[in-house]
Specification:
The protein is about 45% helix and about 0% strand. It is mostly helical. The longest helix has 15 residues.
Length: about 190
């Protein structure tokens, strides 16, 4: 049975169970901890609080000089450490790629390719679009989206062929209440 999220909970119990982001945020607000940021960031703050009693502040990303953001963008613009996926950047890329949008892939590209240019980003965009055409292509699911990963893995298991989405969700609702990993494990993998 899943315990309640309380200040006297052990670190192991906290880590063993699945928590909705909303539950984590409520705990934070009740205990004077910042509830902003990603689910992973919030979980890390709660873990520190349960371990030490320390209330960690969220990591603030330095905002660049607003005036500097109004520079003329081109294919030779270099991706900087303070790159922002702004409306100005979106408008520029729309002039080069008509169906451009800030996908998770391209946001990660900007984050992980400091020093490259917008020309490189355009090339990466088109390569990703080509990869998407492959029938075996699957978008990477970020670690905080455990539910999405579980459902994908449930349906990828041949023993679940013909099962409904409702059955997949029921399986998810069962596993998330149990201690330990929320990853899908095929029943056949133990044979």
């Amino acid at each position: 049975m899943r315990p309640n999220l309380t200040t006297d909970m052990s670190i192991q119990s906290f880590k063993d169970f699945y928590w909705l982001k909303e539950e984590l945020q409520i705990f934070c607000r009740e205990n004077g901890i910042s509830a902003s940021g990603s689910k992973i960031e919030i979980s890390n703050r709660i873990e520190t609080f349960l371990r030490t009693g320390e209330i960690k502040k969220p990591i603030r990303k330095a905002k660049g000089n607003r005036a500097a953001l109004q520079i003329e963008l081109s294919l030779d613009t270099v991706i900087s450490e303070n790159h922002r996926c702004s409306q100005q950047v979106r408008a520029f890329f729309k002039t080069v790629i008509s169906d451009f949008h800030f996908s998770t892939y391209i946001q990660n590209y900007f984050k992980n390719n400091i020093g490259k240019t917008y020309r490189d980003a355009v090339e990466a965009w088109y390569k990703e679009e080509e990869r998407k055409k492959d029938p075996s292509y699957k978008k990477q699911i970020a670690p905080q989206f455990e539910y999405n990963q579980y459902i994908r893995d449930f349906f990828a298991d041949p023993s679940n062929q013909g099962k409904s989405r409702k059955e997949a969700i029921e399986a998810w609702n069962t596993i998330k209440k149990l201690p330990g990993s929320n990853k899908y494990i095929s029943k056949h993998s133990f044979l």
